[in-house]
Amino acid sequence: MVDDNQFALITGTSSGLGYEMAQFLLEEGFTVIGVSRRGTNLEHPQFIDILCDIKDEAAVEEMYELIGNHTDKLHMIILNAGIFEMSPLIETSTKEFADHLTTNVVGAFHILKHSNDFLVEDETHIITVSSIASRKGLANISAYSASKFALNGMIESLREEWSHLGVRFSTLMPGAIATPIWDEGDMDLPRDQMMSVDDFMHVFQMISRSPKHVQFPEVVFLHKKGLFK
């Protein structure tokens, strides 16, 4: 449990991993600011639900103004929001490719760019939910993989820029996780080669509870059968 009232910002809390991480941090005693385009049904006295399209820089600036009504410090920032679609490169439209970059990279850029006034020196922990597809290009997910490679590069650069602040960065690179996203379209992939949401949360809990001087630059984890998608 946290020692005092600490604030965590999580993007993409409407469902899935973002929702689960928000629930866990609330149980840990954080005040959680959840950011998503459509909101969430999560109800808790220490949960603040903010509707925001992180692709829109002006909307992100307004979001931080709202956060400023509650706190001037963010002890944890979790970059989780993102999109994922599968298709061969020649069947991927320019719009679909650009949408991946705009949501998965530019959205995170907006969150980080405007977080500066809320950083707590030697304490703020920035956790990025990336993917194993950021280390290994995989067939039929060129747009997604490109966006995650770019996201990791931005985080690595910012780790150097903000080193004087003592901000720590941890980047999670999970393999496939069995969520409803795999039920969409024609993605018939074996679920027995995927991790569960609980598997992901096991790693997240360890990282979020780690001592303030410890960071995890790259944490790669996946099901032992090794499905890299």
Could you describe the 3D structure shown?
Helix content is about 35%, strand content about 15%. The radius of gyration is 17 Å and the shape is globular. The N and C termini lie far apart (about 35 Å). The protein has 5 helices and 7 strands; from the N terminus they run βαββαβαβαβαβ. The model has no long low-confidence stretch (mean pLDDT about 90). α1 packs across α5 and α3 (about 95-115) runs parallel beside α4. It has a 7-stranded parallel β-sheet with strand order 3-2-1-4-5-6-7, with helices on both faces. It has one domain (about 5-220): Rossmann fold (3-Layer(aba) Sandwich). With about 230 residues, it is α/β, with parallel strands linked by helices. The chain has helices at about 15-25, 55-65, 95-115, 140-160, 195-210, and strands spanning about 5-10, 30-35, 45-50, 75-80, 125-130, 170-175, 220.
Could you give the topology of this structure?
Elements: E1 7-11, H1 16-27, E2 31-36, E3 47-51, H2 57-67, E4 76-79, H3 94-113, E5 125-129, H4 142-161, E6 168-174, H5 197-208, E7 219-221
Parallel strand pairs: 1-2, 1-4, 2-3, 4-5, 5-6, 6-7
Helix pairs in contact: 1-5, 3-4
